[in-house]
Description:
By secondary structure, this protein is an all-alpha fold. It contains eight helices and no strands.
Amino acid sequence: MREATAADHEAVEGAVPLMDAGLDRARYVAVLQRMHGVVKVWEEFALRAAPPSLLPMVVERQRLGLLEGDLLGLGADVPSGDGPVLPGWGSPGELLGAMYVMEGSRLGGQMIARHVEGLLGFSSGEGGAYFRGFGDRTGVMWKELVRVLDGVPPPQDEVVIRAAREMFAVFGGWMRGV
Length: 178
């Protein structure tokens, strides 16, 4: 999965300027506000689309409240507009592919949080709760998702990869609007 989506992942990293040395507070807030649209539509979709077997995993991973808390804590408005349009996914494999992207961002979020806190002078967690996510549990939660993904039988694995690539494209395309 990682190899199949490596180029897509790299393209998204280029669209999200959070690791830039010149990142300032205003730009950081703008990125968070833009991310809100992606996270909101993703979480709404995932709750609707998750089969009963995956619903607890989806519910446990909701982070929109953390992102909104960061924005409010930074004195910024929480966007009220819509986000990007997601593909017309309908299968558990497609949900898992998109979830791979959104959960993978959580792993990188740990590094982003440390960078932003140091660069912008935030205290630990200030303005970075979304990226800190579930702290020490982040790795455990990632491994849980990987176990589920590893259990996807062929040819459904191609469905998962296609959906992951589509989610990377949606995320990157939306974030380029910052």
